[in-house]
Design brief:
Blueprint (H helix, E strand, L loop, with lengths): L1 H16 L2 E5 L10 E5 L6 H9 L4 E6 L6 H10 L2 E3 L2 H8 L11 H12 L3 E4 L17 H11 L6 E9 L8 E6 L3 E2 H7 L4 H13 L8 H14 L13 H19 L6 H23 L13 H43 L5 H29 L1 H40 L1 H29 L12
Parallel strand pairs: 1-7, 2-5, 2-6, 3-4, 3-5
Antiparallel strand pairs: 6-7, 6-8
Helix pairs in contact: 1-2, 1-13, 5-6, 6-8, 9-10, 9-11, 11-15, 12-13, 12-14, 13-14
Length: 467
């Protein structure tokens, strides 16, 4: 009973904080085998919430044993069936300088995981062993591989290891996007039959698969360089509204740009001209972004249709939507404003890492919202009876979601409307931006071809951008 309720609350909390959670590859999740779900861990409590709400299987969680030191957490986590793992770093901290962690510290945890696998359940593990703000995954611990191999040695068959990657547009900022990408399951029986045995080899294979589903940069500056190229070249709709490129498409493009960037670092000195062309492309896109900003628009909005008919359809559609949905959204905002405001204020004042704002907002906001719902239901019961109270509890989550959905749409509509009006007044600006973007895309496509030729035989550079 607790798990479905927590899962429902997690869905609501995630939807309140983030504007969109895009899921790719969910059809790859095996539904009837013992399953070890492995995921990267960039965002603390948000990461297990994403797994629980996106995978079509109930998941047994694992987590650091220190969480169980909190009495409230111990009750909730125990009820959910979480398996505590004693991390070496926590053990060393307890024992002081020079204290070695007990090598048998997780024997019981391994037994619990093996038992869950024997019952053909799904178990979630974060093999990095920690949540962090680094721009790349940390080296994976061998625990996942050792659990899988131990279960197989004890007779559990058909075990699969399922990689799940998270990419956050900006994990700390509300109303940004998340990509959840599910990879192909690694069948442990088949892997053991065809590969070198051992936890290190299996860990290396899990690491390879998980990195293919995530973004991994050597520095924040490198990540910014990739975004500079990928974001403006992502395909945008030409309609009057258009919510922009799908986040999954943008991430895919960013991976290709990153592959090309890494390949450029390895070209021969005689191919230095390629690196110069790549720098020129970056400079051109940076200049285009500055031109668009000075014009009062976003570069991605330069593709909108500025005809009178398009503008009229936009105004009619958005106006009708506002008239119909705005009262509902305003009621949702009125009811939830105190809880959301308090939660975000606490988060701003207590956050010390990139993972804190979302986590603190949800930890503080969720109980406050539940109290709000109970209070509204109690008032409805008092003045209109129990059926009204039940109706209120059904409608309140929808009111809250209507509020955040209308805020997102209104913000995007305002930006598109400003761009529409600005570009209608200055057709030359739109022509300049569109022509320059076309040249940039062609330059990038040629750079892709030349880079692939230059690196042929050494490694596959991937593509920089689509033509």
């Amino acid at each position: 009973m607790l798990y479905p309720m927590m899962r429902a609350l997690a869905k609501i909390a995630l939807r309140w904080y983030y504007s969109d959670i895009e899921i790719v590859g969910v059809e790859r999740v095996p539904l009837d085998v013992p399953l070890l779900v492995v995921a990267n861990h960039p965002n603390a409590m948000v990461d297990p919430m994403l797994v629980a709400t996106t995978l079509p299987r109930r998941v047994t969680f694992t987590g650091k044993a220190t969480l169980f030191e909190n009495p409230l957490f111990r009750v909730v986590l125990g009820t959910l069936g979480m398996v505590p793992l004693r991390r070496a770093s926590d053990e060393r901290a307890r024992r002081g300088a020079g204290g070695a962690p007990d090598p048998t510290r997780n024997v019981d945890a391994f037994k619990a995981v093996v038992s869950a696998l024997a019952a053909r359940r799904a178990v979630l593990i974060f093999p990095e062993g920690k949540s962090h703000d680094e721009p790349a995954m940390a080296p994976l611990k061998t625990g996942t591989a050792r659990m899988a191999l131990q279960a197989r040695a004890e007779g559990v068959r058909d075990i699969a290891i399922l990689p799940v990657g998270f990419v956050f547009e900006d994990k700390a900022r509300p109303r940004t996007r998340i990509l959840v990408e599910v990879g192909d399951p690694l069948r442990v029986d088949e892997w053991s039959a065809g590969q070198a045995h051992g936890a290190d080899a299996l860990t290396a294979e899990v690491d390879r698969r998980l990195r293919a589903l995530t973004m991994n940069f050597e520095s924040a500056a490198a990540a910014a360089d990739v975004e500079l190229v990928a974001a403006p070249l992502a395909a945008e709709g030409s309609g009057p509204l258009g919510l922009g490129a799908r986040y999954a498409d943008l991430v895919s493009l960013a991976r290709r740009v990153d592959a090309a960037r890494r390949a450029l670092a390895g070209v021969e000195p005689r191919d230095a001209e390629l690196a110069a062309r790549a720098r020129a492309l970056q400079d051109d896109l940076r200049r285009l972004g500055a031109i668009a900003t000075r014009g009062g628009i976003e570069l991605r909005d330069s593709t909108i249709d500025t005809s009178l008919g398009s503008g009229a359809m936009f105004a009619l559609r958005e106006g009708a939507l506002a008239l119909g949905a705005l009262p509902v959204a305003l009621l949702g905002r009125l009811l939830h404003w105190p809880a959301v405001t308090i939660a975000r204020t606490v988060a701003r004042r207590t956050s010390s890492s990139g993972s804190d704002p979302a986590m603190q907002t949800m930890l503080v906001g969720t109980p406050l919202v539940l109290v709000t719902w109970v209070a509204v239901a109690a008032i409805a019961w008092r003045f209109a009876g129990p059926l009204a109270a039940v109706a209120a509890l059904i409608v309140l989550p929808a009111l809250a979601l209507a509020d955040v959905a209308m805020r997102d749409r209104a913000a995007r509509a305002r930006a598109r409307a400003r761009a529409y009006l600005r570009l209608r007044r200055d057709r030359a600006l739109q022509h300049q931006l569109l022509a320059a973007l076309s040249v940039a895309r062609n330059d990038a496509a040629r750079l892709e071809e030349d880079l692939r030729a230059a690196t042929s035989g050494r490694h596959d550079a991937g593509g920089a951008v689509p033509a």
